[in-house]
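Section 4.2 – Deliverable D4.2 (structural model, holo form)

The reporting period included a commitment to supply a predicted holo structure for the target in complex with zinc ion. Inputs used:
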Amino acid sequence: MKQKCMNCGLVFYPTKNNYVGYPYIWHRDKDIDSSPARTFHSRYCMDQFLSKHSDILIPIFKQIKESEDINNARTRENQAERKQATSP
Ligand SMILES: [Zn+2]
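Output (structure tokens):
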């Protein structure tokens, strides 16, 4: 698919079967197409964009991490509760 780099504007063509573009997401399942998520043409452009907008992005990253931690803790609690409920 045709993509325009979010940092430098260069047009590039990430596909399911190539390694073009970042962030590159490796999937064990070869049927998953992660190429639409590759919005930067190079690692350098991704890093530059992240650092340029770090004052906005880092707090968002932290929020995502916090809610991920909360969800993981909930999942562990639910699993522990289910184990208790099934044990005699
Ligand atoms: Zn670029």
